[in-house]
Amino acid sequence: MAITLQIIGHKKSGKTLITTTLIERLSKEGYRVAALKHDAHNAAMDVPTTDSARMSSAGAKQVILQSATEFFFHQKSNVPSLTEMVELLSTDNDFVLIEGHKEATQYPQILLLKPGEDPTNVAYTPPLKIGSIFNGTTADLLGKDAIVNWCYDYLKQVKGDAG
């Protein structure tokens, strides 16, 4: 079972920066990493005018786009729960990183703050750590490197690979 960590915070708090940097670091060491991105704005992965987007727009409830090396799965209804998606990703990966889903409390979280934010107004439960890529916050971890290093050490410790 993969080790899971949520990176939460408001829009433009640095979630994607931290998540992608952490993925790069873990991947370079040979770990298999899955990412699950929450979007509260009903985004779509299909690019308009592509065949897969046209199939979806025509009414297909599920579309799989397959190439020689990748596939993308698009489903319009019956969206699986966060737990079901994490379980699906856990089977083939060492780590699952969740960006967002701050309302979910079943996974360990690191909270990213923007200047002037109060952690109690962002997180539903106390996070493991509070970080910020900005100055002028009450965060425990300041700067991208400090946050990524803490997340990396935490994940390796939980996995039992701490060195």
From TrEMBL:
Pfam families listed in its UniProt record: MobB
Any Gene Ontology biological process: Mo-molybdopterin cofactor biosynthetic process
Protein origin, superkingdom: Bacteria
Signal peptide interval: none
InterPro entries: MGD_biosynthesis_adapter (IPR052539), MobB_dom (IPR004435), P-loop_NTPase (IPR027417)
UniProt domain Molybdopterin-guanine dinucleotide biosynthesis protein B (MobB): residue ranges: 5-117
Single GO molecular function: GTP binding
PANTHER family assigned to the protein according to its UniProt record, in alphabetical order: MOLYBDOPTERIN-GUANINE DINUCLEOTIDE BIOSYNTHESIS ADAPTER PROTEIN, MOLYBDOPTERIN-GUANINE DINUCLEOTIDE BIOSYNTHESIS ADAPTER PROTEIN-RELATED
Name of the protein in its database record: Molybdopterin-guanine dinucleotide biosynthesis protein MobB
Originating organism: Limosilactobacillus reuteri
Gene name for this UniProt entry: mobB
